[in-house]
Design a protein that fits this description.
Number of strands: 22
Radius of gyration: 37 Å
Distance between the termini: 57 Å
Number of helices: 27
Helix content: 40-55%
Strand content: 5-15%
């Protein structure tokens, strides 16, 4: 018999049954007729045929097995029965599906982000052969270890390529993606922002990326600085910006103030080498600043390469090390004042070569640990949901005890019963998995949005592909086994005689239910503690005093099409722009700076005080204009503010240092009038004022020593303090163009948003951890309520007798509450221990919170106590309302 016929019989069992009955009846009637023809009486013929054929039902089963595999037949029957149960109990079904759906959706959403950011290979040819280069971070003495250095200089790349030749690997240049202003060449063309990246001419060939339209860069497009104004578009940008127009080739767009010819479109799906960044257009590296190709100290790009067949990362690292060591030695000669501890780090530094099938990503480095933490929390939610559903199935198994006992008495085997009940669980899980899939598609983009800030937008490709689908299905099936197998096995152990006597093993079911409630409590309380710790940590960071008043201050980037200005001309333009903006309505202060705080940009150098050796640590130097401290709201503790003429002084440079600097370098002495310098050829600094301490780029840790000095030249950033709403960009832009044609406003960042951008990880952990902790708490409370309610129902007679003997309302309520305390006590201890252990491993993610912090423990216990009282209150009230006569009469 063909499998097609077997399948048809499986989906049309009624026709199969009718056919089998007709065949059996035909065989019996023919045999009876044969016996009657030989002279046997009819009754005797019937008796003989019955003896010969035996059990007709058994024969029918054997015939069915010959036409249809029993497993397929049984599975289809079980699925039909499960569907009928779901439709029959919509409330019960909705509870299970929603509980599991939320858990599966959370797991699928987080996994889709993990897959896109950490696990999925780049969409290029043979990604497993890609490599990335880095070097150990250089750490100041006494400071926290620095992360690996990923930036290299062009002379280093040339040396690396020469050392490798055409052998072990090919190397290509990729600068760090940045948002760039892009517009058409027409005079009235609107300006927009697109993520741009400079790459070497052979970058696309090295990656194995092909064009979807036109051509990509070649080595000939990247030979002479400033001589190759070309651009390649990403496929998505071509579709969104140019609507997929094939005629885009040859058109010119202005990117970075330079007209560029569009020569091609990259293949569909290629977004660059950094998950988390969607590059929209690429330009040849030679279009970068000309100075960057000459100075060995100008590190501005990453190096990605491809191993040759048979080559290894160790072989490449060995070939590159001599070049790396020579570059470090040459750099140390140019910087003779570096502390010996730092010099030794440079001399011992080794170039690091790693396989990079997933590319390189600043987003990955920053958020890998928080994302794995959230994923583990989501798995804990799944465990809670599975335990909750298992408790519900145990409660329903009690109501189905007679049904199961009847099946057992009719000969159903234990494994057959387990399979039927487990099939029901799988059916529930698959429906919940479908719901979770839908929820994940909505949740994942929201999580990515929570990871983004105005100054660093995060973009990830989140297709619900086969990998994510397989994960979601696996999670659903795993959940089905976790919550379905124990109740199914427990139900299959029912003894028919016990069921008939009314003792169908409720004690065993209640014992198993207690176990599941303890599991839920342990996971839920652990999540509540984790969520409380992250919330308190975020609260501590939010309440850190930055040392200035960010409210009402907005930072505007000032762009100049032609930056070839003398220092004095730049000073004059800066003053004019500040004067015009300061006269706008609502503006109460303006100040120019070289770069904005909390953006990651900084300038550091050693401090050289006459009669002392150079400092071992490098300190922050921050160029600002006059009125900076008044605009920012930073107090001056002593001395004077900068004056407009300070930027023109040549012999000595006035400096204002903060209290941390004064305490570190002039402890016990008056810092006013003290002189110091840095290793550069700048004039000596003379201290004219002391400012209050402020955080510069991080709210964690102590405030760093800072040297403020007068900004010379054109201001790159303009701080504007407004009395009300932020001054509109068009007004600032109008004043900039009035000062000088071509000058305009670029990016705009409220200072408060820049600070918030530095605590995104903490905010993500607090919001996500708190939300999932609350979800786990609700699920655990539902499980506790279900078990207590079942326990009260089982003990109705006992409670009725107690009430009849004079037990008061409070005594009966206390009976239920004591049972609730007994159920949660073990889970609380286990959950708290697990949470403390986990927080100890994640201590670096916390701020101002210890792993066993008392305020976190007290808050978690209070929240859980309230949830326990709510969950136990309804069963306790029901128990107290039991009428003794009704309870005894029902028995």
């Amino acid at each position: 018999m063909s499998w097609l016929t077997r399948f048809r019989n499986a989906v049309r069992p009624g026709a199969l049954e009718q056919e089998l009955d007709e065949e059996m009846r035909d065989h019996v009637e023919r045999r009876i007729q044969q016996l009657e023809a030989s002279g046997v009486a009819h009754e005797e013929a019937v008796r003989r045929v019955g003896i010969r054929f035996g059990n007709i039902s058994k024969l029918r089963e054997e015939s069915r097995d010959a036409r249809l595999t029993r497993f397929v037949d049984g599975t289809i029957q079980d699925l039909r029965y499960a569907l009928r149960l779901m439709v029959k109990s919509p409330g019960f079904t909705a509870t299970i599906v929603v509980s599991l759906g939320l858990a599966i959706g959370a797991n699928t959403a987080v996994f889709s982000i993990l897959d896109a950011a950490l696990l999925r290979p780049l969409p290029v040819a043979d990604p497993e052969r890609l490599i990335s280069l880095s070097a150990p971070g250089i750490t100041d003495p006494g400071a926290d270890p620095s992360p690996e250095r990923l930036a290299f200089s062009y002379p280093q790349l040339k040396g690396f390529r020469a050392a490798l030749g055409t052998g072990a690997a090919r190397l290509a240049l990729f600068n760090f993606p940045r948002a760039a202003e892009v517009r058409g060449v027409e005079a009235d063309a609107p300006t927009e922002h697109a993520v741009s990246q400079f790459v070497s001419g052979d970058a696309f060939q090295m990656l194995g990326v092909t064009p979807a339209l036109g051509r990509l860069f070649t080595a000939d497009d990247d030979r002479t600085p400033g001589a190759h104004p070309l651009v390649v578009l990403s496929y998505d940008y071509w579709q969104s910006r140019f609507h997929g127009d094939p005629g885009v080739l040859g058109r010119r767009i202005i990117a970075g103030a330079v007209p560029n010819e569009i020569i091609g479109v990259a293949q569909k799906g290629f977004f660059g080498i950094e998950p988390g960044q969607m590059v929209q257009l690429w330009r040849p590296a030679m279009q970068y600043d000309k100075q960057a190709f000459e100075e060995a100290g100008w590190s501005w790009f990453e190096i990605i390469g491809r191993l040759a067949p048979g080559a290894t990362t160790e072989r490449v690292a060995t070939a590159l090390q001599p070049v790396w060591s020579d570059n470090n030695a040459a750099m140390l000669k140019r910087m003779p004042t570096l502390p010996q501890a730092i010099r030794e780090q440079f001399l011992k530094s080794k170039v690091i070569v790693r396989l990079a099938p997933n590319g390189v990503s600043g987003f990955r480095r920053a958020y890998e640990t928080p994302l794995w933490v959230i994923f583990c929390v989501a798995l804990a939610i799944l465990a809670i949901a599975c335990s909750n559903v298992a408790s519900l199935l145990l409660a329903r198994a009690a109501s189905r005890a007679s049904e199961v006992a009847m099946r057992v008495s009719l000969g159903a085997g234990r494994l057959r019963l387990v399979r039927q009940l487990l099939t029901e669980s799988v059916f529930y899980a698959l429906v919940a998995g479908a719901l979770g899939w839908i929820l994940a598609k909505a949740i994942a983009p929201l999580l990515v949005e929570a990871l983004s800030s105005k100054q660093q937008e995060v973009a990830l490709l989140l297709p619900m592909n086969s990998t994510v689908l397989l994960f979601s299905t696996a999670v659903a099936l795993l959940a089905a086994v976790l919550f379905g197998l124990p109740p199914a096995w427990q139900a299959s152990r029912s003894q028919p005689i016990q069921v008939m006597r009314g003792v169908s093993g409720q004690a065993g079911k209640l014992k198993l239910g207690r176990f599941f409630v303890s599991v839920q409590v342990a996971f839920a309380f652990g999540l509540v503690i984790l969520g409380a710790a992250f919330l308190f940590s975020l609260r501590n960071l939010v309440h850190v005093d930055p040392g200035f008043r960010p409210e009402g201050v907005t930072a505007y980037t000032i762009l100049l099409g032609d930056p070839k200005l003398s220092e004095s001309a730049g000073n004059q333009l800066t003053r004019q722009l500040r004067d015009r903006v300061g006269a706008l309505p609502g503006v109460t202060g303006t100040a120019g700076t070289a770069f904005a705080i909390f953006t990651g940009s900084s300038m550091t150098d050693q401090i050289i005080i006459p009669g002392r050796p150079p400092s071992e640590q490098q300190e922050l130097f921050y160029a600002v204009t006059d009125e900076y401290f008044r605009t920012m709201g930073t107090p001056l503790m002593a001395g004077r503010d900068f004056e407009r003429g300070d930027a023109e002084k040549k012999d000595e440079t006035p400096a204002i240092v903060n209290q941390a600097f004064a305490a570190k370098y002039f402890a016990g002495a008056d810092p006013m009038g003290q002189r110091f310098r840095d290793p550069s050829d700048r004039p000596t600094f003379v201290i004219v004022g002391i400012a209050g301490n402020t955080h510069y780029d991080d709210l964690r840790g102590t405030t760093p020593p800072i040297v403020y000095f007068p900004l010379k030249g054109l201001s790159g950033w303009l701080y504007v303090r407004s009395a009300g709403a932020a001054t509109p960009v068009p007004e600032i832009d109008r004043e900039a163009r009035a000062v000088r044609p071509g000058m305009r406003v670029g990016e705009v960042y409220p200072l408060e948003s820049l600070i918030r951008g530095k605590i995104l990880k903490e905010r993500l952990l607090a919001v996500t951890g708190g939300t999932l902790g609350a979800l786990g708490l609700v699920l655990a409370a539902i499980g506790l309520f279900g078990l207590l309610n079942y326990s009260v129902e089982r003990r109705t007679k006992e409670i009725g007798i107690r009430a009849a003997l004079g037990a008061r309302f409070g005594q009966i309520v206390g009976l239920v509450l004591r049972e609730a305390v007994g159920l949660v006590a073990f889970g609380l201890v286990l959950g708290f221990g697990a949470a403390v252990f986990t927080l100890g491993a994640l201590e670096k993610l916390l701020f101002g919170i210890r792993p066993a912090d008392p305020q976190v423990a007290v808050a978690g216990c209070l929240v859980f106590l309230i949830a326990t009282l709510v969950a136990a209150g309804l069963p306790a009230r029901r128990a107290a309302a039991v009428d003794p006569m009704t309870a005894l009469r029902s028995e």
